[in-house]
Amino acid sequence: MISVENLKVEFGVTPLFSGVSYVVNDKDRIALVGKNGAGKSTMLKIIAGLQQPTDGVVSMPKETTVGYLPQVMKLSDSRTVREEAEQAFAEIQKLQARVQDLNNQMVERTDYDSEEYHALIDKFTHESERLQMMGGDNYQAELERTLTGLGFRRQDFDRPTSEFSGGWRMRIELAKILLQHPDILLLDEPTNHLDIESIQWLETFLARSSNAVLLVSHDRAFINNVTNRTIEISCGQIYDYRVKYNEFVKLREERREQQLRAYENQQKEIADAKDFIERFRYKPTKSVQVQSRIKALEKIVPIVVDEVDNKVMHLKFPPAMRSGNYPVICENVGKSYGDHCVFSGVELTIKRGEKVAFVGRNGEGKSTLVKCIMGEIPHDGKLTVGHNIQIGYYAQNQAQLLDDELTVYDTIDNVATGPVRTRINDILGAFMFGGEANQKKVKVLSGGERSRLAMIRLLLTPVNLLILDEPTNHLDMASKDVLKEAILAFDGTVIVVSHDREFLDGLVTKVYEFADGHVREHLGGIYDFLQAKNLDNLADIGMMKGASAQPQVQKMSEKPVAGKDDYAARKEQEKLKRKLQKRVDDAEKEVERLTGELREMEEWMSTPTGAQNEAMFEAYGKLKLQLERAESNWEEAMMELENN
């Protein structure tokens, strides 16, 4: 479908990448991976036709349609949510108007036998059929399904887009792209503005779609569930693996080990040849062999080992000053905007040293409660921030609040105070902004680099209560792992608002679910939370409205924090039980069927005609044996089910 040939991009002396060639086929679902700044977003822009490469070409058939969702885009606010989403169906709307115009012409005319009238009928029939094929009769239903799947409620459809945050407006843009059904979807960090439920909906949508997909995402679970191919941009080159991300990680390590072995063997061969040349260079009897070795050395093609970016974000939060035993206590806390109740009756207590997660759909009040804790907005009820609490806050849009015209160094220098100012270069180096990188302007940084820079600002002041609102947006997987380790090692209290399942797994010991205007407490990790609600995945949050409609906070029974592996084992056990139950049901049906046949045969054999039929008696005996075996199978299945 799309052919990328010998692509090269230069922004300075060193190319971002060069000699890049690959093909995107129908139904390919490709994860484009690599460290921040490797050129992933640039690659998508080039394929979308928004940026020209230094060299090389991107070829695709003329009729190929492309849908591109960038990380950041300028959005208009002149329409309602429905009207904005309907822009995806501009062609259908034009065709509808054309069909209506033709219909009006036929109503007005009376020359039913004329050639012109028959030509008008033919044109009306043709355009009507074309409209039907394009889905003109049901596009509104598809529009509503898509908007609902991305988290919008029906009462939101007629609200102006200007009333929504940037994240929600990005969802509208994503809806427009999905509704256009382009031949290839180019998605740059599509999950950054989605909650867990919407991410799961998008996973299902993409899995069922026939489109080709090329996406950039740092959500490991998302790309594993969606993609079937992984292209890595590393050190200016690409490596193409036709496997999911988890398998790619293993294969990449194997590839590098093979390269290292081959490189070491080649270096030994070169060293031996050079040693031979030096030893016998001036011996006439060895001149032929020496010249042979020299020519052999000249023909050797050096084996290049993939460079591994060993620079790691060495993140360590300063030691926390001891706080009171209960950093946050909420007693009947509520927040409303006019007639709209965000949440009410919130009762929660966070103890010193706890690490908790706020989860739920966007718009359910997670960030609002954070702002209440920060003292930024008024609220109902009593909210107590404990003794000696020093809060460090990382907002969702923290990276976008940086001054584009400042350099990396000046951004930190402007907020650093005291002895920290003498260590700015060391701190920047630890965050991979060493050397000339600290003189880059903020406006040229990638999303991940901006996020790292914003995180540095958080580290300059010692705190004992960390509140992190979507801290992993734009961070690459390596940086997320290091951040997670740093939070685990932090000796203060942590509140994390996140939709990243991999990030939360093993990090938090308590989950607060925001749904239907209430907040419910669940002890244990993120997969304990799922198990307690008897959900297969986080997409079902919000669907159990009956369970979450109770105003009181419900606590689940305490148990050890379980990780993804334990959860997976439990789900596998449940799957096995379902299989065994099906086996029991099938065996029971077989017993009933054979019993019925025997009964009919016995009735026939009791008649004078049947009593004289020897073949019938023989068949009866065989059927009796089949019934005994079926009963035995049923008993075995029952015992196996009971033992599991």
What does this entry look like structurally?
The protein is an alpha/beta fold and 644 residues long. 44% of the residues lie in helices and 18% in strands. The protein is built from 21 helices and 18 strands. The strands form four sheets. It has a six-stranded mixed β-sheet, sandwiched between helices. A six-stranded mixed β-sheet has the order 14-15-16-12-17-18, sandwiched between helices. Helix 15 links the parallel strand 15 and strand 16. Helix 19 (564-605) runs antiparallel to helix 21 (614-643). The longest helix has 42 residues, at 564-605. The chain is globular.
Instruction: Output the structural class.
Output: alpha/beta
Biggest pleated sheet: 6 strands, mixed
The overall strand count is 18
| Arithmetic mean pLDDT | 80
Unreliably modeled segments: 542-562
Helix proportion = 40-55%
* Strand percentage: 15-25%
Arrangement of strands in the largest sheet: 5-6-7-3-8-9
Q: Please give the radius of gyration in angstroms.
A: 33 Å
Distance between the termini: 50 Å
- SS summary, helix count: 21
Shape: globular
Provide a compact summary of the structure.
This protein has 644 residues and is an alpha/beta fold. The protein has helices at 40-47, 81-85, 90-108, 115-133, 139-149, 166-179, 196-208, 220-226, 245-280, 287-299, 366-374, 408-413, 424-430, 447-459, 477-489, 501-504, 526-532, 545-548, 564-605, 608-611, 614-643, and strands at residues 2-10, 15-24, 29-33, 55-59, 66-69, 184-188, 212-216, 229-234, 237-241, 328-337, 340-350, 355-360, 380-385, 391-394, 465-469, 493-497, 510-515, 518-523.
